[in-house]
Amino acid sequence: MSETAPATIPGDASCLIVDDDQPFRTRLGRAMEKRGFEVTLAEGVLEAKSAIRNKAPAFAVVDLRLEDGDGIDVVNFLHEERADSRAVMLTGYGNITTAVAAVKAGAIDYLAKPADADDVQKALLQREGAMPEPPENPMSADRVRWEHIQRVYELCGHNVSETARRLGMHRRTLQRILAKRAPQ
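Structure (tokenized):
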């Protein structure tokens, strides 16, 4: 995560970071603190809801898929407790359906993991209605395809035959793709 000078942070700089990946959560928390945010860390939905009940933050960075539930539930709960909060959704599986669900829940942006602190800060502090800047290093078409295949494979319970059927590809072709490392 790159380190930059703090941008203009509003008076209430409370920020909740919810992610079940402990090393990522800790790194992002430290980086956001260096940028002037008052960070609270949570590992899952229950811990996040407890932190929100205690003090609803002005900002939140929430992973979409958590071990004990769905990050969209956290964003919905946050907006029930504090309507003016600004939340950014993170995910390792970027797709249109989940992006739309995150925005409907009240997330102001949707970032693919691993998002760095600069991207998160830009998303949290962007003006209302402003279009986000295009990413510096967008995923390659091969990477997007690989991510989509991995997502469908996971949704099919790691069943190769069912995944191949849903993707409209030969099972052996899918097996070869799954055996390879992720493209850059």
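Residues 24 and 46 are 19 Å apart (CA to CA). The longest helix spans residues 141-155.
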